[in-house]
Amino acid sequence: VQLVESGGGLAQPGGSLRLSCVASGFTFSSFAMGWFRQVPGKEREFVATINWGGGSIYYSNSVKGRFTISRDNAKNTLYLQMNSLRPEDTALYYCARARTAGSTSSRGQYNSWGQGTQVTVSS
Predict the structure, then answer these.
(1) CB contact at 8 A, 50 and 32
(2) Cα(105)–Cα(122) distance, rounded to whole angstroms?
(3) With left for phi above 0 and alpha for psi between -120 and 50, is residue 84 left, alpha or beta?
(4) Least enclosed by CB within 10 Å: which of 15, 27, 72, 93?
(5) Each residue's pLDDT tens digit, 46-92
(6) DSSP designation for 49
(7) Alpha-carbon torsion 111, 75, 83, 58, what sign?
(8) Rounded distance, CA 119 to CA 37, Å?
(9) What is the per-residue burial (b if ≥16 Cβ within 10 Å, else e) of 73-86?
């Protein structure tokens, strides 16, 4: 299993970024996927999840209405469109594969993780 994130960088408050996660080594379309984020000294927190087919999606309250998770099973790729960025969105963002096909916000239900991509929101 390999998950490779990209798309992070520096954005101004109110700006946008789009993260991508390319998956390999497993049948991407059979598993739910998620995005998590972590800042130094804090636990990794749930951001968004999407089930195998994209029909079941959940967000954390802190990003709801600003972030959009999506997937392209033909390209084995997971996305996170981040709009209206805030300084508190600054974190290392991780892509993760769930243990099952159903979407879940529980970190313990994810068993494969990428290396992360840094997002910094600052003026």
Answers:
(1) yes
(2) 28
(3) left
(4) 27
(5) 999 999 999 999 999 999 999 999 999 999 999 999 999 999 999 99
(6) E
(7) negative
(8) 9
(9) eeebbbbbebeebe
